[in-house]
Specification:
The protein is α/β, with parallel strands linked by helices. The chain has a domain of 259 residues: 3-Layer(aba) Sandwich (Rossmann fold), CATH 3.40.50.1100. 47% of the residues lie in helices and 16% in strands. It contains 22 helices and 16 strands. A six-stranded mixed sheet has the order 4-5-15-10-11-14, sandwiched between helices. Strands 9-6-7-8-16 form a five-stranded parallel sheet, with helices on both faces. A three-stranded antiparallel sheet has the order 2-1-3. Helix 3 crosses helix 11, helix 17 crosses helix 18 and helix 19 crosses helix 20. The longest helix is centred in the middle third of the chain and has 20 residues. Bound molecules: pyridoxal-5'-phosphate. Pyridoxal-5'-phosphate (PLP) binds next to helix 12.
Length: 497
């Protein structure tokens, strides 16, 4: 399978797409065609365990990787998840399910891909005959950074450097990153918000001057951000797996359509669901849930993507994003894979913060997706009521998703002849990762200390506290540096020495 750029002619192998991260013209790599999964193949997947299902889906795209070796890498990656299933599906009531993606090393769904990416990247370098060391640069709104640090720590021939917005991540997220161990890692706070951080990293990637300086020191840049196809591919797998679990547990019949609601920031997770649908998975609507930063909801309503707006800090920080990078891949598909048009729109976005799509593209977008947003108080109410009704505690990001999912279902119930499908809400983080906000939502109580919050939630819910979150309380803070966006590359040079 070849991969092409959303903005031009470049065509590369899977390994090259993963190693490069982003195309030379600034575009994102997308598969030349969507590989199909037939009904028979889907039947076969029913009997597989999670790593086998994932290997099956990944190898459809990454056929330059050895399938057995890929399976072994996936088995190893997902053995770090508790309870033996990396992506368990939990039934809340008939027709409503949670896909829990937070049982990995850092308690958020980013682990699904970032435990696998080191293998994909290292092997990708071998396949491309690359001899240099790799420097992985990450801009994070909180969860990616920790998952990348954990995934790449002490990986031979790789260094990883994470930039996070100084006051744009939760206390727990910051603690998780700043206490990270491993000899090949570095963490720096950036004075600004996530978009400043992401723009800074993109600038380094786009600069031939930076690339030359790094090459002098024996390094090649790569990205672990969600624009890397190596991040996207492992995410496609859990939509297949969730579907298989619904069939094997007799919740649906093979071929029935299922809707998914995804708490969305950079549009990576929900794009993976769209890719699964393109491959033939029977998916109905994809519900794109945003928090108060509702640029995607407006886009769905008006067909105008306008990032020039207030930026709000919310209790779902991993969704506090105004420029959703992966949306470029969807725009490319909606345009009928028109690279010139995609390039034009992305140029408009970077020049004026804005672009629009045509009426027929918008129509197609709305046929596949629904978009909504939840403000802070609606999210809190939803988390509270859901816990009261079902005894199920959820994190703040999942709370946003549930609130929008419920509104979507309510809207359908008012329509005559609406097609109603089972709904899977994607649960992206452990409630213990955002303990103060979760405790507030469930009880109305404020606590100053994250660990006190963890203890109280545990008393209230009897849900097991992840060991890895308990442990960071006693770990020393290793990283205290901060920098302005303009000085980010200086920090990179300092790090690699
Ligand atoms: C990253 C993240 C999201 C948003 O996912 P995207 O792929 O960026 O849309 C949602 N919830 C949590 C907990 C996350 O870490």
């Amino acid at each position: 399978m070849r991969f092409i750029s959303t903005r031009g002619e470049e065509s590369v192998t899977g390994a090259q797409a993963i190693v490069k991260g982003i195309a030379s013209d600034g575009g994102l790599f997308v598969p030349e065609t969507f590989p199909a999964v037939s009904g028979t193949e889907l039947e076969e997947m029913l009997g597989m365990d999670y790593p086998e299902r994932a290997a099956f889906v990944l190898h459809k795209y990454l056929d330059d990787y050895d399938k057995d070796e890929l399976l072994a890498a996936l088995k190893k990656a997902y053995s770090q998840f508790d309870e033996g299933d990396a992506a368990p599906l939990v039934r809340v009531e008939n027709g409503m399910y949670m896909l829990e993606l937070f049982h990995g090393p850092t308690c958020a769904f980013k682990d699904m891909a970032l435990t696998v990416l080191p293998y994909l990247l290292r092997k990708g370098c071998d396949l491309c005959g690359i001899k240099e060391d790799i420097l992985v640069l990450v801009a994070t709104s909180g969860d990616t950074g920790k998952a990348a640090l954990e995934g790449f720590k002490d990986a031979p021939g790789i260094k990883v450097m994470v930039f996070y917005p100084d006051d744009g991540v939760s206390k727990m997220q910051k603690l998780q990153m700043c206490t990270q161990d491993g000899d090949n890692v570095n963490v720096v706070a950036v004075k600004g918000n996530f978009d400043d951080c992401q723009t800074g990293v993109k600038k380094i990637f786009g600069s031939s001057e930076c690339a030359a300086k790094l090459r002098e020191k024996g390094y090649l840049l790569s990205s672990a951000n969600s624009i890397n196809f190596g991040r996207l591919a492992p995410q496609i797998a859990y939509y297949f797996s969730a579907y298989c679990d619904l069939v094997t547990s007799d919740q649906i019949k093979m071929g029935d359509k299922v809707d998914f609601t995804v708490p969305t920031g950079n549009f990576g997770n929900i794009l993976a669901a769209y890719y699964a649908k393109k491959m033939g998975l029977p998916v109905g609507k994809l519900v794109c849930a945003s928090n108060k930063n509702n640029v995607l909801t407006d886009f769905w309503e008006r067909g105008v993507y306008d990032s020039k707006r207030n930026f709000y800090k919310t209790m779902s920080p991993s969704m506090d994003i105004l420029v959703s990078s992966n949306l470029e891949r969807l725009i490319f598909e909606l345009s009928g894979r028109n690279a010139a048009l995609t390039k034009e729109r992305m140029a408009a976005l970077s020049a004026s913060g804005k672009y629009s799509i045509r009426a027929e593209e918008l129509k197609q977008y709305r046929a596949e997706f629904y978009a909504g947003y939840a403000n802070e108080s609606d999210t809190v109410d939803c988390m509270y009521e859901f816990f009261e009704s079902y005894g199920y505690p959820m994190d703040t990001h999942t709370g946003v998703a549930m609130c929008v999912a419920q509104r979507y279902e309510e809207m359908l119930s008012k329509e005559t002849n609406a097609e109603v499908h089972p709904m899977v809400v994607v649960s992206t983080a452990s409630p213990y990762k955002f303990p103060q906000d979760v405790l507030y939502a469930l009880t109305g109580n404020d606590v100053k200390d994250s660990f006190k919050g963890i203890k109280r939630i545990n008393l209230l819910t009897a849900m097991k506290v992840p060991e890895q979150l308990k442990a960071i309380r006693y770990k020393p803070i290793r990283f205290k540096e901060s920098a302005t966006p303009a000085k980010m590359f200086d920090e990179v040079l300092k790090f690699i020495g």
